[in-house]
Amino acid sequence: MHAVIPSFIQSGYAFVPAAKTHQTITLSGARLSDGHPVACATIPMVPTNLTVTYAAASDVPATCPVTLPGTTLFMPPGVSPDSPHTVYGDYWYGNPKLWTALPLDGVWNGGKSFWWSEGYNAWTEQRPDLTVTGKRLDGPGSATVDRATNGMGGGAGSFMLVGVDFPTTGCWQVTGAYKGETVSFVVWVDHSAKENLSSATAAATIHR
After folding, report:
1. How many C-beta neighbours within 10 Å does residue 74 have?
2. Which of 99, 108, 131, 202 is the most exposed, having the fewest neighbouring CB atoms within 10 Å of its CB?
3. pLDDT truncated to tens, each residue of the chain (208 aa)?
4. H-type helices in 116-208, by residue range?
5. Which domain holds residue 5?
6. Are 67 and 33 within one domain?
7. How many other C-beta atoms can be found within 10 angstroms of the C-beta atom of residue 179?
8. How many distinct structural domains can be found in the chain?
9. Same structural domain, 48 and 83
10. Are residue 91 and residue 124 in the same domain, yes or no?
């Protein structure tokens, strides 16, 4: 792969049309395989001689099996825009009955979590029966998750929305369940900057 970003890359998120799921580009997180940064990434047409590879962020421990895109990217039915970056995350993950959007490098520190399901209507189901849980895999802990609500617009159609708060740094598994369908993924949560600030503030208070 050349250091020059090819002209067919338009933005930093990968998108493969449903009819061309075998035609993708080589990415490593948010960089090309040669280390050249990708400033942006929507790919409407991709040459057939390229393949997809992804890597977790460099600070993700090898012991944390974060969820990364496969060589075939899931394309949800009837959703626009084709790339989810305008809503949240970098690629679609799940199946037509339940899907979400995840970061390419496996790192997510919580916040708003968007979910979709084919046939879901935000007008008629304003309080969707979606449950989202989070449990830490490398130690004790559980995430705090708001009750699901509805949303629509911005080209994202009707979606379900929850707020997820991870209390500590670590390897976390998140599971969404809706109408008998479950989708799980693993992310690395890095609160080190916030935790260091809290420790410094506490130390300063003690030594006053």
Report:
1. 16
2. 202
3. 322 323 333 333 333 333 333 333 344 344 433 444 444 343 333 333 444 566 788 889 999 999 998 877 788 887 655 556 555 557 889 999 999 999 988 999 999 999 999 999 999 999 999 999 999 999 999 999 999 999 987 677 899 999 999 999 999 999 999 999 999 999 999 988 665 544 444 444 454 5
4. 192-206
5. 1-53
6. no
7. 12
8. 2
9. no
10. yes
